[in-house]
Structures are given as structure tokens and as C-alpha cells.
Amino acid sequence: MPLLHSAALLRSRELLRSARVPAIMLLAAAALGLIAANSPAGPALDAFLHTEIAIPGVFELSVEHVIKDGLLAVFFFVVAVELQFELTAGDLNSARKAIQPAIAAAGGVLVPIAIYLALAWGTPSAGGWPVPTATDIAFALGVLAVFGKGLPSALRVFLLALAILDDIAGIVFIAVLFTTGVNVGMLAAAGVWVVVFGILSRQLDSRHRTAIAGVMVIVALLTWGFVYVSGVHATIAGVALGLAMSQHPALRVRHALEPWVNGLILPLFAFTAALVVIPAVTPAQLQPAFWGVAIALPVGKVLGISAFGWFSQRVGRGRAAEPPLPFADLLAAGALGGIGFTVSLLLSDLAFAGDALLRDEAVLGVLTGSLISIALAAVLVSARARHYRRMVRSEDV
């Protein structure tokens, strides 16, 4: 019986590390949140999220802030560890490898911003322009895994690099645009603790690694606390710690945290972020915060990534590490890039923190735009996968 239990636990962890299961869980959690918010239980859930959790003389946080500022910092830590690996030893460790996805990622950021501002310029919704710039890497790879059997690995590598560069843009937006009244002293103290964390991580191969790991957890919590009170968004603490940690132990920690992030943290965040009451208005009465995001995610990402990706393959042909991707593959990658979800939901919350109505409409825009992108990506990725499978069969014959 213990062996069966251990095997089931191992199997569940591997499923949560896969591409498909976390994507399904994320979508299901968002759908449940939307349904719950528009049910009789909605007001009670909203009241629960605003319940204060306080340690006298230390901090006061609502349940919602624990999820969005605390647990989500763990997700950003995992993202930063992957980012560190890709920049030093992975698919982005040289300008030659990064040039094409970098230009395509720039298009996937700039074109959605242009579409959003074209619809929202001069309105209170204009401040939400960063929302449609993000790509949910886990969700995009999940859709690719479900519908992309037979696709060449070059497309997955391109999408992974693209999404990582999008993550960098999202992190920069969070750190720069949504930071107010910075307490320099607190931020400097957080920086000191980040350095201590990085130094300790390089001692984890010693025989005292258990004690060092315990101290690192305390240092990580202190870093998060100082970043939180400094005025910088607390998720940046996770980014700083992930980038500072020694790579080999960081990858081991990422592997251990991945099932928790995919199976608990991200679905919980998606559920709470989607707790939005659908406004009883006609489509014409919806604000540009909705339409800008709902259109810019699927349309802007497809246009930006495919057009800039095609251009990058023309100007960087001599320096590219891989053969150019067909334009149809770039279209499929653009549709996958339009799945904003996690970071877009967070950006919605930050961009419209002072206006609940606009925040809710932006969240609905993220859900709508991401669903359109999922449907479009499923069609395009399936078509490209069939094309490559036919090519393989023809070569075999």
C-alpha cells in the first residue's frame, strides 16, 4: 500500500509538470471563478478575499493580497529561474540565438499596445495598455502539447523563447509602471538580503545544506517583506531571488516547486482574478478596457509576432542559429502568444487598481481574448501538425 501511494503521488507530480494538465486546470479555475462571482455565493467570496490577515506591528494583508502578492511571488521565482537558465545556458544564451524571437517578441508587445491605444486613447481605459502584452507560457505550451503532435521542435523552441522575452517585458512593466512612493531604504535592505540569498545558495553543496536551506527560506521571506513595504510590487522579490540563486540548486528547487505552482498557486490566482461580476450591459456599452484587451490579444499578437518574425528572418538570415520558420508556423506561434492569462490578469489588477469597474472589464477582456486565441491556436496548430505529419508520411513512402 505505501508503494502504491508513493507511485500515485509520483504520477500526480509528473502530471502537474506536464504541459496539458496545468493548462486545463488553469482554464477550469478561471471558469469556476467567473461562475462563482455571478452566483449567490459571489458576495461572500468577495468578502472573504478582503478579510484581513494581520501580525500586529509587522504587516496587515488581505487574503487577496496573500494570493496576488505572496503566492504569486513563488510563481515569479520559478519564471526567473527558467529565465536565468535560458539566458546563460539555454535558447537565449547568445545574440545569434535570440535575435529572431527577440524581434518577434517586440512585435508581440508593440502591435497589441498600438491596437489597444487606438481603441482606448483619450479615455479612462488608456492606462491599461500593458495588459495585452503578456503571453502565458504554461498555457501556450499546453495548447501546443494538445494540438501540436508532429510539429518540429524548432517551433516549440521559438515559442518558448518568445514567451520568456514576453515575461521579461511583463516583469519590467510591473517593476517600473506600477511602483509608487518607493522607500529607497527598504528597497536597499531587500537588495542586501538578495545578495545574502545568492551567497548562501552557493554553499548548498556543503554538508550543512539542510541548515543553509532553512536560513535561505528565512532570508527569502525577509526579502519579500522588505520589497513589499518598499512600494515595489512584491512579486519582484521572487524575480530577484530567482535570478540571484546559483543555477544548479535553483533548477532543483524549480523542479520541486513546479507541481505546487501549477497545481495550486496558478489555479488559485486564476480563480480569484476571475471573480468578476459580468456587467448587465449591451456590448456597445462595454468600455475600451474590455474591447482593447479582447481584440489586442488575439489580433495584435498574431499580427505582431508573425509580421515581425517574418521580418527578423529576412534581416537576420545570416546570423540565425536555426533555419527560418515558415510563415504559417509564425501565424500559429502568434495565436499561441495571444493567450495572455496569468500575467495579463495581474497587469489588469495593477493597471486599474483604483477603478473596480475598469479592472473587471479588463479581466473579462483577458478571458475573452485568451479564449479566442486558444480557439484560433487550436485550429492553426492542428493544421500545421497535420501538414508536418503528411510530410513525414510522404518521406517514409
TrEMBL record:
Keywords: Antiport, Cell membrane, Ion transport, Membrane, Sodium, Sodium transport, Transmembrane, Transmembrane helix, Transport. It is found in: Cell inner membrane; Cell membrane. GO terms for biological process: regulation of pH. The keyword Transport applies. It catalyses: Na(+)(in) + 2 H(+)(out) = Na(+)(out) + 2 H(+)(in). It holds the Pfam family Na_H_antiport_1. One of its GO terms (cellular component) is plasma membrane. It comes from the Bacteria. The chain crosses the membrane at residues 102-123, 184-200, 212-229, 263-282, 288-312, 324-347, 362-383. Gene3D superfamilies: Na+/H+ antiporter like domain. Belongs to the NhaA Na(+)/H(+) (TC 2.A.33) antiporter family. NCBIfam families: NhaA. Na(+)/H(+) antiporter that extrudes sodium in exchange for external protons. This is Na(+)/H(+) antiporter NhaA. It comes from Microbacterium lacticum.
